[in-house]
């Protein structure tokens, strides 16, 4: 990575703190842009650095020098509006926290704006960069590719229900949270081209659906299936089947393997040092973004193409 890059970190909450810890390990100048005094004060107490306050528009009104890159880690409800302001200012390289927007119209407008401005925008799905994922990819390549894949994205309703979030965030929880799993499955198995989805139930905080099941095919010819039940116990997980392996990511930070001819579930030793020092996947994702070696990062266009499948899984309108 080139030295002395200027990076704007937009946000001063928990996710921004995680990014700041990573950025400190690189030789870059970090400018933090927060919104409220409370979050800025907490950030200062944790890191000893006081963010600019007032939000992105207040900061841009000071006509700051252009950065080399921007990381947007604000609340879900503010992601699209914040990123539009940054692109309109003239920034051309942005890492945007998932899901980029709450509504399909906003993600489409963001894509149009980015194209007109020749801005590169990536959606931050850090599970793609877990050490477990990277190791699984090597085993998949060695064994000739994925044949089929199944995944579960059960969420814990008893934990989510009492959370205080901006309007629309919990109602779109699959987009804002569960897509970490779904994106990972499609990243490993290919872009969906055919899908059949079923839903049932509802929750006070997520009225469109609570139980999910479905199956389909990707552009790589990989068959996939999924399930989740937000009214019952469960956890995230992805299983990838190749000719000789069943690779199990459950929890996603760990990798297990079942070899052909056996039913023994073996733990796979992985080099996950960076995932223990930092929030898992964040160091590798940020390094690729800043070094412009963006292989594996989720592009804005790819995310927009997947949006209709996410909406079908959760019974959302687009």
Automatic annotation (TrEMBL):
InterPro entries linked to this entry: Gfo/Idh/MocA-like_OxRdtase_N, Gfo/Idh/MocA_Oxidoreductases, NAD(P)-bd_dom_sf
Segments forming domain Gfo/Idh/MocA-like oxidoreductase N-terminal: 8-124
Transmembrane segments: none
Protein name: Gfo/Idh/MocA family oxidoreductase
Source organism phylogeny: Bacteria, Pseudomonadati, Pseudomonadota, Betaproteobacteria, Neisseriales
């Amino acid at each position: 990575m080139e030295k002395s890059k200027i990076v704007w970190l937009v946000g001063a909450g928990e996710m921004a703190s995680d990014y700041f810890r990573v950025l400190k390990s690189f030789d870059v100048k970090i400018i933090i842009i927060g919104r409220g005094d409370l979050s800025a004060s907490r950030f200062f107490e944790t890191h000893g650095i006081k963010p600019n306050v007032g939000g992105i528009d207040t900061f841009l009104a000071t006509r700051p020098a252009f950065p080399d890159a921007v990381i947007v880690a604000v609340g879900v409800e503010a992601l699209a509006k914040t990123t539009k302001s940054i692109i309109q200012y003239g920034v051309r390289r942005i890492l945007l926290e998932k899901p980029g927007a709450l509504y399909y119209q906003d993600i489409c407008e963001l894509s149009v704006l980015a194209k007109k401005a020749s801005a590169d925008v990536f959606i931050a799905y850090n599970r793609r960069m877990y050490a477990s994922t990277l190791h699984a990819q090597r085993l998949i390549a060695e064994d000739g590719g994925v044949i089929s894949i199944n995944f579960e994205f059960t969420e814990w309703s008893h934990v989510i229900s009492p959370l205080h979030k901006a309007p629309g965030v919990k109602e779109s929880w699959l987009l804002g949270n569960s897509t970490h799993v779904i994106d990972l499955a499609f990243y490993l198995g290919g872009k969906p081209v055919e899908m059949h989805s079923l839903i049932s139930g509802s929750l006070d905080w997520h009225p469109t659906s609570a139980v999910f099941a479905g199956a389909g095919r990707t552009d790589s010819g990989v068959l996939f299936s999924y399930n989740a039940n937000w009214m019952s116990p469960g956890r995230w997980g992805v299983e990838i089947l190749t000719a000789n392996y069943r690779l199990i990511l459950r929890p996603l930070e760990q990798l297990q393997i079942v070899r052909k001819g056996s039913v023994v579930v073996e733990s796979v030793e992985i080099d996950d040092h960076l995932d223990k020092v930092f929030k898992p996947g964040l160091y590798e994702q940020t390094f690729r973004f800043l070094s412009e070696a963006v292989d594996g990062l989720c592009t804005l266009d790819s995310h927009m193409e997947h949006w209709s499948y996410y909406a079908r899984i959760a019974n959302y309108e687009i």
